[in-house]
Amino acid sequence: MKRTYWKHCHVATMRDGRYHAIEDAAIVTCGKHIEWVGARSERSASGTDACVDLQGAWVTPGLIDCHTHLVFGGNRSLEFEQRLQGVSYADISAAGGGIKHTVRHTRDATEDALFESARKRLLALMREGVTTVEIKSGYGLDLNSERKMLRVARRLGEALPVTVKTTCLAAHTVPSEFAGKADEYVNYVCNDILPKLAEEHLVDAVDAFCETIAFSPSQVMRVLLRAQKLKLPVKLHAEQLSPLGGASLAAEMGALSADHLEYMSADDAAAMGRAGTVAVLLPGAFHMLQETRRPPVDLLRRHGVDIAVASDLNPGTSPALSLRLMLNMACTLFGLTPEEALAGVTRNAAKALGMLGTHGTLEAGKTADFVAWEIDRPAELAYWLGGELPSRTVRHGEWRDLTSV
């Protein structure tokens, strides 16, 4: 098995969510895994090791985008204009726009068309150092269309050098054919969509949208309970637009994460801290919707809740093609430190996907996914606005080449 000695670098290991910086460091990889990380003075290359000079780069774990809706048909630039003219997200949804608009376009699109459009978006993320991405369904809202979306997500992970985790978000909104029959639609999700897609091995986790414009806590609980019976981990969109106690419900259900969280309470934060449920903050949606109520970051810190940051890439409320821009927004809009923001797209993002045992930090035994950045200090990843920072990405112990994909 190939062993490589990566030298002349500085490493932000992100162990325990901190930089834990090692200057003048080295990394030894063996095949797809990290064998050793430490000060270069502590270990030299053996005679059989391949040697790579990283020329003074700062090395971080590969970035992880733990919340995206990357596969969809059409776009909602018209709604962007409407919101700027004062129309609310809730009003747009009630008029048949919002998620319902994307559902129509996604149902009409072929699998190949969805793959090609999603591939371009995913490549944009990958060029900024993303090595793992979560992709949700939720714009199909019937069995065949949800299956189509999840098949595309799986294809992306097979066609591109990136790890893809899939999440079934069939409980995203009530489709038009079930208008006024939310409970019946939840039955359909629980009895038809989830079991069949799980049987086809298309689902890694299950999510739901707990909100006044989507599903009530009791309806969401039914979905999450069904997922758990299928032995699938769960997560939840919660407290984005109103305080419904979804974050506490997520904690009660042992969810991997609760996401958005602008309206969460102190009780929600305490429950998440006790349960180990990750708080996934989505500054792109906050920015696009021009919200003013920030997630209570101080409460999350006080209760020891791990904080992740994600793009929420979607066609309506966060058409974000840059996870690195989300680092800046997490700092400037939500008050995270650059160190917390970087932990949010590495260590804590891995935890939000149930992957902390193998990803998210640079430690012996973990997957050899990392990025070598031409920067002077890690805070630059959250500092620069726009543009591509010069970098090279290693995935599974090998340089990743995006020129031919």
From TrEMBL:
<feature type="binding site">
    <location>
        <position position="139"/>
    </location>
    <ligand>
        <name>4-imidazolone-5-propanoate</name>
    </ligand>
</feature>
<dbReference type="GO" id="GO:0019557">
    <property type="term" value="P:L-histidine catabolic process to glutamate and formate"/>
</dbReference>
<keyword id="KW-0862">Zinc</keyword>
<keyword id="KW-0378">Hydrolase</keyword>
<feature type="binding site">
    <location>
        <position position="314"/>
    </location>
    <ligand>
        <name>N-formimidoyl-L-glutamate</name>
    </ligand>
</feature>
<dbReference type="Pfam" id="PF01979">
    <property type="entry name" value="Amidohydro_1"/>
</dbReference>
<feature type="binding site">
    <location>
        <position position="317"/>
    </location>
    <ligand>
        <name>4-imidazolone-5-propanoate</name>
    </ligand>
</feature>
<feature type="binding site">
    <location>
        <position position="76"/>
    </location>
    <ligand>
        <name>4-imidazolone-5-propanoate</name>
    </ligand>
</feature>
<feature type="binding site">
    <location>
        <position position="316"/>
    </location>
    <ligand>
        <name>N-formimidoyl-L-glutamate</name>
    </ligand>
</feature>
<dbReference type="GO" id="GO:0008270">
    <property type="term" value="F:zinc ion binding"/>
</dbReference>
<dbReference type="GO" id="GO:0005506">
    <property type="term" value="F:iron ion binding"/>
</dbReference>
<feature type="binding site">
    <location>
        <position position="67"/>
    </location>
    <ligand>
        <name>Fe(3+)</name>
    </ligand>
</feature>
<feature type="binding site">
    <location>
        <position position="237"/>
    </location>
    <ligand>
        <name>Zn(2+)</name>
    </ligand>
</feature>
<comment type="pathway">
    <text>Amino-acid degradation; L-histidine degradation into L-glutamate; N-formimidoyl-L-glutamate from L-histidine: step 3/3.</text>
</comment>
<dbReference type="InterPro" id="IPR011059">
    <property type="entry name" value="Metal-dep_hydrolase_composite"/>
</dbReference>
<feature type="domain" description="Amidohydrolase-related">
    <location>
        <begin position="58"/>
        <end position="397"/>
    </location>
</feature>
<keyword id="KW-0479">Metal-binding</keyword>
<comment type="function">
    <text>Catalyzes the hydrolytic cleavage of the carbon-nitrogen bond in imidazolone-5-propanoate to yield N-formimidoyl-L-glutamate. It is the third step in the universal histidine degradation pathway.</text>
</comment>
<keyword id="KW-0369">Histidine metabolism</keyword>
<dbReference type="GO" id="GO:0050480">
    <property type="term" value="F:imidazolonepropionase activity"/>
</dbReference>
<feature type="binding site">
    <location>
        <position position="312"/>
    </location>
    <ligand>
        <name>Zn(2+)</name>
    </ligand>
</feature>
<feature type="binding site">
    <location>
        <position position="312"/>
    </location>
    <ligand>
        <name>Fe(3+)</name>
    </ligand>
</feature>
<dbReference type="InterPro" id="IPR006680">
    <property type="entry name" value="Amidohydro-rel"/>
</dbReference>
<protein>
    <recommendedName>
        <fullName>Imidazolonepropionase</fullName>
        <ecNumber>3.5.2.7</ecNumber>
    </recommendedName>
</protein>
<dbReference type="GO" id="GO:0019556">
    <property type="term" value="P:L-histidine catabolic process to glutamate and formamide"/>
</dbReference>
<feature type="binding site">
    <location>
        <position position="69"/>
    </location>
    <ligand>
        <name>Zn(2+)</name>
    </ligand>
</feature>
<feature type="binding site">
    <location>
        <position position="67"/>
    </location>
    <ligand>
        <name>Zn(2+)</name>
    </ligand>
</feature>
<feature type="binding site">
    <location>
        <position position="240"/>
    </location>
    <ligand>
        <name>4-imidazolone-5-propanoate</name>
    </ligand>
</feature>
<dbReference type="InterPro" id="IPR032466">
    <property type="entry name" value="Metal_Hydrolase"/>
</dbReference>
<keyword id="KW-0408">Iron</keyword>
<feature type="binding site">
    <location>
        <position position="172"/>
    </location>
    <ligand>
        <name>4-imidazolone-5-propanoate</name>
    </ligand>
</feature>
<keyword id="KW-0963">Cytoplasm</keyword>
<comment type="similarity">
    <text>Belongs to the metallo-dependent hydrolases superfamily. HutI family.</text>
</comment>
<feature type="binding site">
    <location>
        <position position="237"/>
    </location>
    <ligand>
        <name>Fe(3+)</name>
    </ligand>
</feature>
<dbReference type="GO" id="GO:0005737">
    <property type="term" value="C:cytoplasm"/>
</dbReference>
<feature type="binding site">
    <location>
        <position position="139"/>
    </location>
    <ligand>
        <name>N-formimidoyl-L-glutamate</name>
    </ligand>
</feature>
<dbReference type="InterPro" id="IPR005920">
    <property type="entry name" value="HutI"/>
</dbReference>
<feature type="binding site">
    <location>
        <position position="69"/>
    </location>
    <ligand>
        <name>Fe(3+)</name>
    </ligand>
</feature>
